[in-house]
Amino acid sequence: MRDVAVKAKAKLGKLPGDDLYNELIHESDLDRKIGLLKTHYSFLEDTNSKKDVEFKLFKNFYQELKSLDFFLEGIESEFFKEYFAIYEIYLIQEVIQCIMNNTLEKNILNLRENPFSKDLNIDIDMSLEEFIDGLKDSKYYRTLLPFINENMDRESLIFLSSNALMKFYFRDLLKLAKKFKAKERVLIEDFIGELINLSNFEMLYRLKKFFELNDSEIFNYLIEGGKGYNAKRLKELSNLPIDEFLDYLNESKYKDIFDNAWYSHIRVNRKKMKLFKDEIVKERSTVLYVISAMSIIDTNIDNMISMLEVDGSFTLSEKYELVIVR
Fold first, then answer.
1. pLDDT tens-digit map of 9-21
2. Which domain of life is it from (predicted)?
């Protein structure tokens, strides 16, 4: 195992054990839950609010990413950075949503504090055009440029710009995968392809269940490059009524993901967790190992934030359902 993978494995070893999760799940008082987290994370020592806990956990995650990337070079470093550029995209999506909903002033401090915001120009009274113009030197500019002059309503613009960014993200990852040597290239393409499948299935489910769209419109929102799902198969799935689509999934390894709309996103993330854990166990690719390790650590943060957000109105079984197994 290469040094960088050893360092990633060491970071996994610092994750809290089941005892802490059980204590968080059984505790309803927010202050006591924060106190439990302080016993495991020394950098939370002077933190007393849920917002600050969330910020410090994510900032620490960002620093951990940087510390691993220091040991990567060439295409591995490029791919690692691009994979975790998803957080830049999430931030851009959030800024666009704030601009369109007139909530930028309310949220600007949180946006600027995000460690992935260093290359973004975010001003209180900026328009969407000004924000996108500020991205001229970034890789996202060409993807977002068409939305400056689009004559569409607020919700459509938010959704379509977000969808365009996600398509760009996965296309870029697949393009970078081609630069690896043949054997590792296949592993990386399969890994990203599985993530694309889960993203597409979640999109199909939401569009079919909650929106009135024709089949061709649904197909246009899907991402090509999924493992085993070319454009023809995606089009076939787009044409299925929702009940037939769910029947199709339930005959595959993706069964039961969408049995409950409330938990569907959590179950998608559990499938991703299995993907990450498999890479950790198999150790077939260094870059996939470190990506998977950091993704597991990120999921751990999401778990803890979820535990801070739930209160006594949730049953124990509902709280356990929110925790994505590690």
1. 999 999 988 888 8
2. Bacteria
